[in-house]
């Protein structure tokens, strides 16, 4: 193997294109790969999922020693590269090589961020577009907004930096086998009739490898809505949840995916598989209720004004749901209303908005069994936070210097549900306090389960946060939906409870 890679490096600049075992038919050729249209795929009932991002780069946690192995137990794997290479075998090894560029490129851009969420990044992009700038929402490590660098740019209100770097190499894939090495170009299509293992993990049977906007590569899979949901439901709400809760989750996961299918437009796929989208893992359904939930709600989505809604959901709302505008720096949607999440009697006891810490403390002290979803482990929580912990997080996020100290912590604004929307952190520098807004609170202070909390100062350098819930609190509470299902509510009733005035609608799939 060492000799093989030595050969690869020595002769990288003079590799001749070699086609091995190329006599097979394929449903797709290189030109068709280039023409993939994201909106059309959605209309056909398919998502393009970025299974593994940043391949070949510093943040590549999937490749093994710069190598990806595709293997099949029976039959043959087929590979088509956009530069005309075709290959057929039981095993395919692709290695990433940093190939020097003859003419290095200078990359210059203005970068806004980081943002805690795609929603906040998109809002900033829209503001810049309104001012005439060409914008791109990117996710190199955190959500950012990019605009091209130009001389005489105006001063911007939002936090930004100018990025300048020289690109002097290109991450290039090579097919390596017993006969030699072949340079590949993307998109690269790899498929088989049987299940394919990639670095020992079974993912399915057809994939793309495509260059992304960061100079690295993404492993992409085209998958039907229902097959996608089979890999989402077990990891988002749990496979053993009641049937009606699973149905509700199936509807909103499908709806959320369609509404948010433009997240990775710049790299020609719809969604990722992490918590930045919906958690997805390839799955063969063995749970009958999961299968029933997906089949019973097939192609059903939630709509408002005849359009898919932004169907946010989360683990636990702590007994009160949030408006979208108090969780992110975005517009409010009319189908999200802050509600007390429990029986009708609770709505007589507590009135919204919850405006101060005293009222929120009374709410948190109330008998939690009266609320939907109170069995969640973080329905009520306490966190002691020291000034040193606060300082470490602020330094990590480059908000203060290593020699600064945290003196106090105050909530200076709350939303209708009582959630903190502005958190002031006072430091020992004169006239220097840090104000974290909405989703940035949990991005920076990522040990806080939710923004629904009160602040109690225990000493000069120690605070107790008393809170409730896990996540942003907007839309369906998964723990609440599970309890409602156990109480006999149908999935339609559950959805109506969390998404007011939204309507169920069956979408038309063009391929049917």
N-to-C terminal Cα separation, in Å? 49 Å
Alpha-beta classification: alpha+beta
Q: Considering DSSP H and I runs of 4 or more, what fraction of the residues is helical?
A: 10-25%
Strand content: 25-35%
> Quaternary arrangement of the chains shown?
single chain
Task: Describe the largest sheet.
Answer: 12 strands, antiparallel
What coarse outline follows from CA principal-axis ratios? Answer: globular
Rg calc: 25 Å
Output mean pLDDT. 90
* Beta-strand segment tally: 23
Low-confidence segments:
1-31
Describe this structure in words.
This protein is an alpha+beta fold and 512 residues long. Among the domains are: 101-168, Alpha-Beta Plaits (2-Layer Sandwich), CATH 3.30.70; 312-474, no CATH class. 24% of the residues lie in helices and 32% in strands. It is built from 15 helices and 23 strands. The strands form five sheets. Strands 1, 2, 3, 4, 5, 6, 7, 8, 9, 10, 11 and 12 form a twelve-stranded antiparallel β-sheet that branches. It has a three-stranded antiparallel β-sheet with strand order 14-13-23. A three-stranded antiparallel β-sheet has the order 16-21-20. β13 and β14 form a beta hairpin. α7 (243-259) packs across α8 (288-296), α7 (243-259) runs antiparallel to α14 (478-486) and α7 (243-259) packs across α15 (491-498). The radius of gyration is 25 Å and the shape is globular. It starts with a helix and ends in a 6-residue tail after the last strand.
């Amino acid at each position: 193997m060492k000799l093989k890679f030595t050969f690869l490096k020595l002769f990288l600049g003079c590799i001749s294109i070699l086609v091995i075992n190329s006599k097979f038919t394929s449903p797709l050729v290189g030109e068709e790969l280039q023409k993939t249209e994201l909106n059309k795929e959605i209309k056909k009932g398919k998502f393009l999922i970025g299974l593994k991002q940043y391949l070949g780069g510093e943040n590549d946690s999937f490749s093994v020693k710069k190598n990806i192995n595709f293997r099949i137990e029976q039959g043959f794997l087929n590979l088509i590269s956009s530069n005309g290479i075709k290959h057929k075998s039981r095993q395919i090894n692709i290695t990433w090589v940093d190939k020097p560029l003859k003419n290095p490129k200078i990359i210059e851009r203005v970068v806004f961020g980081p943002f805690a969420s795609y929603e906040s990044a998109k809002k900033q992009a829209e503001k810049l577009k309104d001012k005439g700038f060409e914008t791109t929402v990117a996710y190199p490590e955190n959500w950012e907004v990019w605009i091209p660098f130009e001389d005489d740019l105006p001063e911007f209100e939002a936090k930004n930096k100018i990025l300048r770097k020289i690109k002097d190499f290109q991450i290039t894939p090579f097919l390596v086998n017993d006969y030699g090495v072949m340079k590949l170009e993307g998109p690269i299509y790899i498929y088989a009739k049987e299940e394919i293992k990639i670095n020992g993990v079974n993912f399915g049977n057809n994939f793309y490898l495509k260059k992304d906007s960061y100079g690295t590569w993404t492993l992409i899979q085209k998958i039907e809505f229902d097959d996608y949901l089979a890999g989402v439901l077990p990891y988002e709400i749990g496979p053993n949840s009641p049937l009606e809760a699973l149905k509700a989750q199936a509807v909103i996961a499908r709806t959320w995916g369609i509404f948010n299918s433009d997240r990775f437009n710049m790299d020609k796929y719809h969604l990722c598989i992490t918590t930045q989208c919906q958690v997805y893992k390839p799955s063969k359904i063995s749970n009958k209720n999961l299968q029933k939930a997906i089949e019973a709600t097939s192609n059903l989505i939630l709509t408002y004004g005849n359009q898919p809604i932004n169907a946010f959901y989360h683990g636990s709302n702590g007994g009160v749901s949030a408006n979208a505008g108090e969780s992110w720096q975005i517009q409010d949607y009319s189908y999200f209303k802050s509600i007390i999440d429990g029986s009708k009697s609770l709505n007589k006891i507590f009135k919204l908005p919850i405006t101060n810490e005293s009222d929120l403390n009374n709410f948190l002290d109330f008998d939690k069994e009266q609320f939907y979803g109170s069995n969640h482990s973080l329905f009520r929580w306490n966190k002691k936070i020291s000034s040193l912990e606060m300082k470490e997080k602020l330094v990590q996020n480059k908000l203060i210097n290593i020699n600064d100290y945290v003196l106090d912590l105050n909530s200076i604004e709350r939303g209708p549900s009582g959630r903190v929307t502005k958190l002031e952190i006072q430091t020992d520098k004169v006239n220097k306090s840090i104000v974290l807004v909405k989703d940035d609170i949990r991005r920076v202070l990522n040990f806080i389960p939710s923004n629904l909390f009160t602040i109690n100062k225990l000493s000069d350098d120690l605070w107790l946060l008393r809170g409730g819930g896990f996540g942003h609190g907007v839309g369906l509470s998964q723990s609440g939906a599970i309890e409602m299902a156990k109480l006999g509510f149908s999935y339609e009733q559950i959805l109506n409870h969390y998404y007011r005035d939204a309507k169920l609608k069956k979408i038309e799939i063009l391929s049917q």
